Amino acid sequence: MRVCVIGTGYVGLVTGACLAYVGHDVICVDNNEEKVKLMKSGQSPIHEPGLPEVIAESIRQGKIEFTTDIAAGVQHGEILFIAVGTPSLPDGRSDMRYVEAVARSIGESLTEGYRVIVNKSTVPIGSGDWVRMIVLDGMAGKPNIDKIQFDVVSNPEFLREGVAVYDTFNPDRIVVGSGSDRALNLMQELYQPIINREFAENKNLPPVPVVVTDLNSAEMIKYAANAFLATKISFVNEVANICDRVGADVKEVAKGIGLDSRIGSKFLQAGIGWGGSCFGKDVSALIYTAEDYGYSTEILKACVRVNELQRTLVVEKLQQALKILKGKTIGLLGMTFKPDTDDMRDAPALTLIDQLSRLGARVKAYDPLVSQSGLRQGFSNVIVETDLERLADGCDAVVLVTDWQEFLSIDYAKMLTLMAHPVIVDARNFLDGKALKALGYQYIGIGR
Ligand code: NAD
Questions:
Q1: What is the C-alpha to C-alpha distance for residues 17 and 27, in angstroms, rounded to an integer?
Q2: 201 and 223: one domain?
């Protein structure tokens, strides 16, 4: 099928590249010329394992093209994905200006025939009808308007950064919402190779479940999923804070409750709290949507509050260990909001850097990706070191912020010899606390 994906970020580029890889003819559109130039040369502008290979193969097969020309993309596609960002406005609502600009351009560029316009971006409930309205506005005055037809579909994305290609080929479910059977049928046809697990790791599993529903429910599913996951993390963090006080170990507690199939073990890791580009903005957008309709979301507000407190907990632990932080040097292991991504949006490390520098500490950081890329220039109040020895040198404490696998194999004995004080705060409960204590560290976990 002919597909156009508008917006080539973490979601759009992975979606476009994977749909091309399974055999569709895809044009990816972005208004960032630098990105388009890079993608045209076969490179990925984002770090995502497996993505360069999928792009390279799709280019080789002649299945994918990149352009800044949205009109060309719209004319090509029978299915048009909107996959631009929907960040938070300062008040917490969704900033819909990018979706609006794209919907208007689609309206202006539509030619005769039928198209499916797919909201892949996470958009507030009711946006499907709103997009329809903006597209119609964009079409106004076209001479052939009665020969242009389209339907809007909500097809929220659930991929996780760092494993986005895997998630696209191995989804837990696909959600499509629309009032149009014609559009829903085309979406089923589009996703058939993925539904049939033709590119999945385990091809023997039953087909991927497809949730076919109305527009509003599809949009709500995305928000409810993210709000639930964020709440699960805030819940276990609250349990961790009680564990800290009563002398229980939250890792043991999480194992004990996670084995209950009604609870499940995923998203039960206590730590510095959730971050990234989605949870914060989506939970807050849902809180505001509820308020627009006269409902106050008590659980979701508590979920956000617990997360804010969790981010300050590491500073409190450092203060308990070192007393005064003014003039102290703190080293951060990891900066990205999770491993295997270069995404720094709403990363807990940024809050930590702010808090520590406000208290007069000198902050250094090492991150396997940030330290080795051009990204390292873009931060204030932190010295981004290029290797672990420089990071450890003279530190009064080290904080593990991101659970990168390679931090498990650091030579912690050697690190100890470089540090001024042997304090390590494991803000992800990721390291072997017993082994570190045996080496002579003061090991401080979360809730244990
Ligand atoms: P992103 O910021 O990485 O990418 C957005 C892209 O859109 C950028 O490349 C930007 O240049 C481009 N763009 C903006 N305006 C444009 C325009 N007028 N024309 C063409 N291109 C334009 O965003 P993302 O992380 O991929 O997220 C996209 C959407 O998907 C958001 O609504 C987000 O909430 C949702 N989502 C994200 C994730 C994730 O893990 N990142 C997961 C699920 C859903």
A1: 9
A2: no
